């Protein structure tokens, strides 16, 4: 199989996403003053859902991360409460895709912790987790939730193990994972699931890409391409393809496309540029768009620059000659000289010290072009250390601090011919990439179609993405990033928008997408069942589907116990809804305090209880579910109002404190 090469020649093809553009949020809609972590790990460091944004922060004495409401934009209080229960630095955080108030974190203290976030946000430091997972022997660097099964979490660390956890377990501290995968010989750099979670792809530091069966841990495919060192790997939805980003043999940033059933040779391979930062891939299965984002790199780079100069001058007399020069120099022996030379790029600051080793007395004055007077008795050997600081406006090079140590030898072969040899050593400390390239993916050759590139001079340390259900469909927003800009302590939302004139809902760019409802429980997945995600429409006013949409085959107590015995399992419609309502009626806080005919709250009326009514009264069940959905929506509105009230109270207190301090 031959490797295809992408062509950058403009291809005129029909696409509704050809003119997608990136729109950065204004300063007042950003999150300012966030102490973003300085960790060198290649993780996103940020997680977002429609309610909260979480970001790993820099702190002393353990690890912590910050949880803010997505509406809490502007200046962030430096003393804002944090989630700070880890004893080591936090390396990764991920929100539960089926519970907007549940987040998992992993740390250098070798543990994974799952946290309950209060509905009003974190109002005081949170130190006690809901679950603590203890199984790794070394620090844990990466975690992922299963895309369709509820409460199934994957973790991997520096012990080279991938562990599977069932959070439906009643213990608060879980020490034994349900499965451990031990096929990796080095640190796992990334994990990705296919749409129904039946395949797990990993990239490893041993330069191999693996496709695994996550339930059993069996190795299905393995790629070992010598021309491509993968750092990140990603499943491309239902296209049965993998995309990896990494570096080539010549250390150029590179991406490769693979057939998930045959990893021997990539379908496509393309070099992007010569920068050193990691490339983060993001894929939108609804629009088939691929986003490639760069990352800020703090790794030092050493450069050795040999230089050879040949100077020729025209001699008029033994002591008077015409010299073409680009510098102004005053040189006295044994000698301290100050050399002012015009910089090659602005702005630049250069300070040089020349030490002459020649036992001679020379006076050299030069203006370019000029008439010069020179008295020289011997060749000159001098050492000139210099320090220069330069700022570049390039999108890839942010700041360069160079320590230059040139060693120069000036050998005079005749009164009119001189040879200069020097060696310069420079150190580049900060490099960054703030650009995002995006492509459209197809199942036929050439597979990838370059659309355009979003350019920014502010490089990102990490990135979070908003789930589709949290986008603004009224402005035709199809993707949203949250860029972590370390040099500004800023989180900047970036919306990818399809330009449309109409303000109505655009059905063609918003197909049915994954919802916040789980397709199955952890027990069902562990028993061997695979299901695709529960889909929902993003059209305003559409109904959000329930978790576990299929009715169970029986009404036995075992089925009810498995679903209702866990803390986070959501009730099923029909039979399981009956048990849920009965449980709510048994709680004193949910009992009605008004006088009604049967002593129950009319908003929590139970559905039909006999078997004939359950299966035959379709209209009655439909009305019941509509009533429950309306109740849920009203409660959610009340919770949002309460959250806003708490935020306003905090802002009022901050204003009062600032006034008192002045």
Q: Going across the biggest sheet, name each strand in turn.
A: 27-39-38-35-33-31-30
Residue stretches low in confidence (pLDDT < 50, at least 5 long) are: 298-384, 388-405, 426-430, 551-616
**Structural class by secondary-structure content:** mainly beta
Write down the overall mean pLDDT: 75
Query: What value does the Rg take, in angstroms?
Result: 32 Å
Q: What's the overall geometry?
A: globular
The proportion of strand residues reads 35-45%
Gap between N and C termini: 72 Å
Counted beta strands: 46
- Count of runs of 4 or more consecutive helical residues: 5
The major pleated sheet works out as: 7 strands, antiparallel
Question: Percent of residues in helical segments?
Answer: 10-25%
Summarize the structure.
The protein is mainly β and 662 residues long.
Helices and strands in order:
Blueprint: E1 21-24, E2 31-32, E3 46-48, E4 52-57, E5 63-69, E6 74-75, E7 83-86, E8 90-95, E9 102-107, E10 111-116, E11 131-134, E12 140-145, E13 152-157, E14 162-166, E15 173-174, E16 179-181, E17 188-193, E18 200-204, E19 209-213, E20 218-223, E21 228-235, E22 241-248, E23 253-259, E24 268-273, E25 280-284, E26 289-293, E27 301-312, E28 314-315, E29 320-323, E30 328-330, E31 336-340, E32 348-352, E33 354-356, E34 370-373, E35 380-383, E36 386-391, E37 399-404, E38 407-414, E39 417-428, E40 436-441, E41 448-454, E42 462-465, E43 477-485, E44 490-497, E45 513-514, H1 522-526, E46 535-536, H2 557-564, H3 575-585, H4 611-616, H5 618-661
Parallel strand pairs: 2-6, 11-15
Antiparallel strand pairs: 1-44, 2-44, 3-4, 4-5, 5-7, 8-9, 9-10, 10-11, 12-13, 13-14, 14-16, 17-18, 18-19, 19-20, 21-22, 22-23, 23-24, 25-26, 26-40, 27-39, 28-29, 29-34, 30-31, 31-33, 32-36, 33-35, 35-38, 36-37, 38-39, 40-41, 42-43, 43-44, 45-46
């Amino acid at each position: 199989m031959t490797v295809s090469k992408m062509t950058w020649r403009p291809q005129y093809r029909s696409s509704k996403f050809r003119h997608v553009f990136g729109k950065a949020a204004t300063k007042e809609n950003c999150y300012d003053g966030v102490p973003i972590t300085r960790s060198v790990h290649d993780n996103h460091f940020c997680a977002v859902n429609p309610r909260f944004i979480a970001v790993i922060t820099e702190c002393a004495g353990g690890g912590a991360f910050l949880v803010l409401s997505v509406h809490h934009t502007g200046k962030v209080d430096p003393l804002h409460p944090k989630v700070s229960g880890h004893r080591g630095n936090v390396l990764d955080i991920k929100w539960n895709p089926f519970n907007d108030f549940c987040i998992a974190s992993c740390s250098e203290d070798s543990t994974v912790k799952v946290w309950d976030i209060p509905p009003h946000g974190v109002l005081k430091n949170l130190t006690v987790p809901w679950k603590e997972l203890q199984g790794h022997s070394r620090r844990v660097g990466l975690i992922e939730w299963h895309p369709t099964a509820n409460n199934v979490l994957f973790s991997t660390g520096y012990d080279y193990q991938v562990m599977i956890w069932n959070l439906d377990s009643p213990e608060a501290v879980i020490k034994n994972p349900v499965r451990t995968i031990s096929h990796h010989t080095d640190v796992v750099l990334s994990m990705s699931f296919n749409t129904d979670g039946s395949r797990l792809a990993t990239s490893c530091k041993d330069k191999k890409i693996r496709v695994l069966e996550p339930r059993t841990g069996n190795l299905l495919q393995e790629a070992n391409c010598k021309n491509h060192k993968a750092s990140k790997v990603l499943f491309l939805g239902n296209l049965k393809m993998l995309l990896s980003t990494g570096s080539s043999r010549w250390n150029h940033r590179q991406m490769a496309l693979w057939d998930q059933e045959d990893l021997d040779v990539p379908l496509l391979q393309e070099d992007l540029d010569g920068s050193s930062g990691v490339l983060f891939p993001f894929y939108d299965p609804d629009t088939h768009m691929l986003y490639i984002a760069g990352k800020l790199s703090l790794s030092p780079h050493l450069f050795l620059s040999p230089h050879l100069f040949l100077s020729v001058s025209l001699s008029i007399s033994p002591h008077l000659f015409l010299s073409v020069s680009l510098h102004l120099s005053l040189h006295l022996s044994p000698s301290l000289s100050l050399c002012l030379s015009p910089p090659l790029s602005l702005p630049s600051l250069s300070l040089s010290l020349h030490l002459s080793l020649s036992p001679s007395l020379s006076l050299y004055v030069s203006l370019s072009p000029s008439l010069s007077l020179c008295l020289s008795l011997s060749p000159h050997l001098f050492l000139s250390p210099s320090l220069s600081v330069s700022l570049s406006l390039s999108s890839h090079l942010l700041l360069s601090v160079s320590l230059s140590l040139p060693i120069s030898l000036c050998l005079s072969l005749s009164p009119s011919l001189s040879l200069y040899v020097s060696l310069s050593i420079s150190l580049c400390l900060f490099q960054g990439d703030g650009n995002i390239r995006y492509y459209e993916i197809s199942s036929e050759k050439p597979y990838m179609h370059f659309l355009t590139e979003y350019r920014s001079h502010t490089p990102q340390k990490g990135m979070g993405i908003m789930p589709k259900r949290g986008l603004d469909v009224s402005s035709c927003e199809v993707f949203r990033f949250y860029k972590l800009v370390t040099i500004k302590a800023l989180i900047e939302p970036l919306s990818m928008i399809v330009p449309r004139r109409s303000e109505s809902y655009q059905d063609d760019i918003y197909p049915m997408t994954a919802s916040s409802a789980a397709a199955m429980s952890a027990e069902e997945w562990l028993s061997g069942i695979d299901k695709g995600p529960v889909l929902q429409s993003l059209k305003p006013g559409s109904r959000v589907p329930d978790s576990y949409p299929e009715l169970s085959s029986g009404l036995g107590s075992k089925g009810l116990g498995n679903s209702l015995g866990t803390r986070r399992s959501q009730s099923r419609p029909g039979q399981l809804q009956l048990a849920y309502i009965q449980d709510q009626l048994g709680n004193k806080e949910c009992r009605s305090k008004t006088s009604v005919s049967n002593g129950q709250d009319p908003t929590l009326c139970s559905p039909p209880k006999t078997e004939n009514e359950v299966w035959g009264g379709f209209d009655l069940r439909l009305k019941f579910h509509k009533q429950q959905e309306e109740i849920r929506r009203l409660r959610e509105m009340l919770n949002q109002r309460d959250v806003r009230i708490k935020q306003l109270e905090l802002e009022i207190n901050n204003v009062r404190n600032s006034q008192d301090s002045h």
